[in-house]
Amino acid sequence: MSTLQEETHNHALLDRRVLVVEDDPTVSEVAATYLRAAGFIVDAVADGFTALQRVMQTPPDLVVLDRMLPGIDGVEVCRRIRANSAVPVILLTALGTEEDRILGLQAGADDYLTKPFSPRELVLRVQSILRRSIVEFAVESPVVFGAFTLDPSARTAARAGEALALTAREFDLLAFFLKRPNQVFGREELLRAVWGWTHGDLSTVTVHVRRLREKIEVDPTHPLVLATVWGVGYRLEGAVRTNAAV
To answer: Which terminus of the chain has fewer CB atoms gathered within 10 Å of its CB, N or C?
Structure first.
């Protein structure tokens, strides 16, 4: 990416709203300070019920959500957000087990960071998710794939004319495959290309593929669109064409 492109991308992120949901005042203050310094408008709350109210009243562009919260935990907050919104969610967790990370991803989180985390890394994760949703696909033509249509500019997808409620990462994952039909990609490749991670938990990819299949397959237990190539990775089956009239 050229310096001019990077400046354009970063400018597009200015004044985006980030909701930080964290009951530890020190962690909340540090996260909010770094995000504000990066140009984001930050609203911080300390419990899940207040977070759900804010999401409904003043929809943010992204939510940074602590796993352990008083009253209602972060996983349940994420589930409730997902029932009404596709806003990106980054889950903060002090529980480092794979099972806990998978639980958060299954609840609808787009990304996660394990505590203690670098506030600079948090800013980079937020920028990565929002940059893809705001800028990356802005000039691309709509795509048709069988019963599916995807408009990268509007970041909308539909099956047989019915809108698909995709999270930010699910949309990015589907868009990546639609641009590369009939090619096999391993989880490491997808982690680098879609998440922008050079290393990380490969179960992140597995869970997102499973969630995406639940929304695009007739029978997610026997996928025909997003197929598994055993021992290698995943492949989008069929022919894709662009269609500016979609």
So the answer is: N
Q: Where in the sequence is the domain holding 213, given as residue range(s)?
A: 143-242
- Secondary structure class of 14 (helix, strand, coil): coil
Instruction: Choose among 3, 227, 43, 201: nearest CA to 112.
Output: 201
State the burial class of residue 46 (Cβ atoms within 10 Å of its Cβ: 0-12, 13-18, 19+). Answer: middle
Number of domains in the chain: 2
Write the burial class of residue 1 (CB in 10 Å: 0-12 exposed, 13-18 middle, 19+ buried). Answer: exposed
Is 173 found in the same domain as 86? no
pLDDT, tens digit, for every residue of 206-236? Answer: 999 999 999 999 899 999 899 999 989 999 9
Q: Among 86, 121, 136, where does a domain finish? A: 136
Q: Where are the beta strands (DSSP E) in 41-147?
A: 41-45, 62-66, 89-93, 111-114, 143-145
